[in-house]
Specification:
By secondary structure, the chain is α/β, with parallel strands linked by helices. It has 2 domains: about 350 residues, Rossmann fold; about 280 residues, Dynamin, middle domain (Four Helix Bundle (Hemerythrin (Met), subunit A)), CATH 1.20.120. It is built from 20 helices and 11 strands. The strands form 2 sheets. The protein has a 9-stranded mixed beta sheet with strand order 4-3-5-2-6-1-7-8-9, sandwiched between helices. Strand 8, helix 7 and strand 9 form a beta-alpha-beta unit. Helix 9 crosses helix 20. The radius of gyration is 43 Å and the shape is elongated. The two termini are about 50 Å apart. The structure holds guanosine-5'-diphosphate and magnesium ion (MG). Guanosine-5'-diphosphate (GDP) binds next to helix 2. It holds the Pfam family Dynamin_M.
Length: about 725
């Protein structure tokens, strides 16, 4: 269902646009009026249908249309570049295919249910050679059978529809056909693209009809809108069809040709609702009213009332009925609008297939002229973007020395990037990615850790002031004088405090290393982006190294904590200064203890307001407890500072070593080790890179071809403008 497909019908004849046969001849449908594009204006549509046919209008439009068709054929739309397109929409059986048939003069599949199951791009090209040449080319599976068909067809070539050469292009092959077999051929191609049955597909079919007298027009016929699935159709047929239609009519570059049956009430048409959704003002919608022969009553009023906002106007037509030939159908139509008591009242400028054709040709010229400059700009932009992307891709490595130098270069540039983000704080490679501004993030993390340590040790001083100290003093009391401070008590309290915070530093270093791992992996991945086969080795190297460094840091921090627990030392004079300040409150404390009339809620430096009343019952020991608390408080500041400082130094030192010393060796070891696959690994281009390269090359080729196509017509426009 999603296979690539195009179906194309061609009619080869010598170009002789200056000599288009007269309207009365068998197949000419459209009198073409000379008109420079810039002057196109709907007033001109009022010209009589039999106006003399002159070709210079065609000469100017044709190259533009050809260019657009070439771009369409090149599939420039795959690059997201929209092309000006006339899109035919309409409810099921509103007469879409009949209108296209009338414009093209060929038989399209018609029948019950949805016949049009894939978008059918129909290119009509006028062709002035009176001698038709018919062929149907087919490449692929069904070639033989169809070629036999074709021989038959060519033998009958002089039959009724002399004058057309048709071929269908789809699924990468070309099928020659003729007007007699075109209907079968389209059905067959549709089945191949969308599967047989009633499924539908987005993949378009291109039908090129080069034929004497057809208007130069390219239109897309879409599946008709149906609310209720008929037998064999999927349940979500409405959603599927509506998705295809929306895809085609949504772009501003699309002209919506809304086919409405005269027999229905226009505002109830599903196709009207759908086109109004994407073209609210109706400025790019043209209505074709079919089956006027079936419902002539009130048609004029319906069209004049314009209840449904049709910006480009209405054209009423009568299509071929039953076995009529095209000529007969056109005669019948002309006759109908001439003689019918109701239909003859409708202004001649809005009736008949020739008027429709002429109107479409003009609308098409206008939209193409309008869109072309933007298309040129988009092609150029995409082309240069793709070329620079391709240039950024690595060379395909072919020898070991080449692979070695590529590896060294990846490692070198990765290490340099890491130095920048982790050590030097230079972020020009990641200006907007805050996560990669590592020096700032690391210092933030460290500050936060310091704050948390500080906070977690500000314990509940206020309740039971000094009671913990008293308990410990009592437990460590020995046989000796009471006014010696037992060192054991001090160490015990210190140890207890260190224990309380001992989890946090280890947690902190783990967090920091996790962060560093993410950064290192991101940098390595960025630098080895073009060699996905390197990714696993470099990632593993980074993980191994960082795991090692993380363990080392954790051990180091654990050791520092252990030291703080058992040794109390500092040479920092700050200790004595702080202790001195804290002890200044001691006199106040003693005073309160000894004076029963004073309030027992006192303010002590460094602890704020504390209740001390409960200490009156510990006369022998509260003095020592106070002293020991102040020493601990003064010393604790030193301990925390020392802890944060040494973690900072250790981390910084470790990261430096990681980047400057270990990284290169470890990556090389990994790559050369048992899992790495060696340098040879680098010589195999990874499929994803190969695919990307191919995609870019293809797209560049397509865009270059497209550029050439448009350059030619733009030159012509420039020459014509002179
Ligand atoms: P689609 O489903 O929109 O493609 O509609 P078709 O083109 O298949 O037409 C549906 C039916 O309406 C066919 O039987 C046509 O012959 C018939 N039909 C289309 N246009 C006219 C018309 O102008 N007059 C009459 N009487 N029948 C028409
Ligand atoms: Mg149809």
């Amino acid at each position: 269902m999603s296979e690539k497909a195009t179906l194309l019908v061609v009619n080869k004849m010598a170009k002789q646009n200056s000599n288009i046969p007269e309207t009365s001849s068998s197949s000419a449908l459209v009198p073409i009026h000379v008109q420079p594009i810039s002057m196109i204006d709907d007033e001109e549509l009022a010209i009589p249908v039999e106006a003399p046919i002159v070709s210079s209008y065609n000469d100017r439009i044709r190259p533009l249309l050809d260019a657009i068709d070439k771009l369409r054929h090149l599939k420039v739309m795959q690059e997201g570049i929209q092309l000006p397109t006339i899109v035919v929409v309409g409810d099921q059986s509103s007469g879409k295919s009949s209108v296209l048939e009338s414009l093209a003069g060929i038989n399209l599949p018609r029948g019950q249910g949805i016949c049009t199951r894939v978008p059918l791009i129909m290119r009509l090209q006028h062709h002035s050679d009176p001698l038709p040449e018919l062929h149907l080319e087919f490449l692929g599976r069904t070639v033989q059978t169809d070629e036999t068909h074709i021989s038959d067809a060519i033998n009958q070539a002089t039959d009724e529809i002399a004058g057309s050469e048709l071929h269908l292009e789809f699924l990468g092959r070309t099928v020659q056909t003729d007007a007699t077999h075109i209907s079968d051929a389209i059905n067959q191609a549709t089945d191949e693209i969308a599967g047989s049955g009633k499924g539908i597909s987005h993949t378009p079919l291109t039908l090129v009809v080069k034929k004497n007298g057809v208007p130069d027009l390219t239109m897309v016929d879409l599946p008709g809108i149906t609310r209720v699935p008929v037998h064999g159709q999927p349940d979500d047929i409405y959603e599927q069809i509506s998705a295809i239609i929306t895809e085609y009519i949504k772009p501003e570059e699309s002209i919506i040709l809304n086919v409405l049956s005269a027999t229905v009430d226009f505002p109830t048409c599903e196709s009207i609702r759908m086109s109004q959704r994407v073209d609210k003002t109706g400025l790019r919608t043209l209505a074709v009213v079919t089956k006027v022969d079936k419902a002539p009553e009130g048609l004029l009023d319906k069209v004049m009332a314009d209840d449904v906002n049709i910006g480009l106007g209405y054209v009423c037509v009568r299509n071929r009925i039953g076995d009529e030939s095209y000529d007969e159908a056109r005669k019948e139509e002309a006759n109908l609008f001439e003689t019918h008591p109701l239909l003859s009242k409708i202004d001649k400028s809005i009736v008949g297939i020739p008027v429709l054709a002429q109107k479409l040709v003009r609308i098409q010229a206008t939209i193409i002229a309008k869109c072309l400059p933007e298309i040129v700009r988009k092609i150029n932009d995409k082309l240069s973007a793709n070329i620079s992307e391709l240039n950024r891709m690595p060379h395909n490595l072919t020898s070991v020395p080449e692979a070695m130098s590529a590896l060294m270069q990846i490692i070198g540039s990765s290490v340099e990037s890491l130095r920048k983000v982790l050590l030097r704080g230079e972020f020009e490679e990641y200006p907007d990615d805050k996560h990669m501004h590592c020096t700032a993030r690391l210092s933030e993390m460290l500050n936060q850790c310091a704050r948390e340590l500080q906070k977690s040790s500000e314990d509940n001083y206020k309740d039971n002031f000094l009671m913990e100290e008293i308990r410990i003093l009592e437990e460590t009391r020995g046989i000796g004088l009471p006014n010696f401070l037992p060192r054991a008590a001090f160490l015990m309290i210190l140890q207890k405090k260190v224990n309380e915070i001992s989890g946090a530093p280890v947690e902190f270093v783990c967090k920091v290393w996790e962060y560093i791992e993410k950064v290192v992996v991101a940098v390595l991945m960025r630098h080895s982006e073009h060699y996905p086969q390197l990714e696993s080795s470099t990632r593993r190297a980074a993980q191994i190294l960082i795991a090692k460094r993380k363990d080392m840091s954790a051990d180091r921090v654990a050791e520092i904590i252990e030291m703080e627990k058992i040794i109390d030392y500092t040479c920092d004079p700050e200790y004595l200064t702080v202790w001195g300040k804290l002890m200044a409150s001691k006199n106040l404390f003693l005073d309160v203890m000894n004076n029963y009339s004073r309030s027992t809620l006192i303010t002590i430096d460094g602890f704020g307001e504390v209740e001390v009343g409960h200490l009156k019952s510990f006369p022998n020991i509260r003095d020592q407890a106070f002293d020991i608390k102040m020493r601990i408080a003064a010393y604790w500041k030193i301990v925390l500072k020392r802890l944060v400082d040494s973690m900072a130094l250790n981390l910084q030192f470790s990261v430096k070593n990681l980047v400057n010393k270990d990284m290169e060796t470890e990556i090389v070891n990994e790559l050369m080790g048992p899992h790495g696959g060696g340098l040879e690994r680098l010589l195999e281009e990874s499929p994803s890179v190969a695919i990307k390269r191919e995609r870019l090359n293809k797209s560049i080729k397509l865009l270059k071809d497209s550029k050439e196509v448009v350059a030619k017509v733009m030159d012509r426009i420039a020459i014509n403008a002179d």
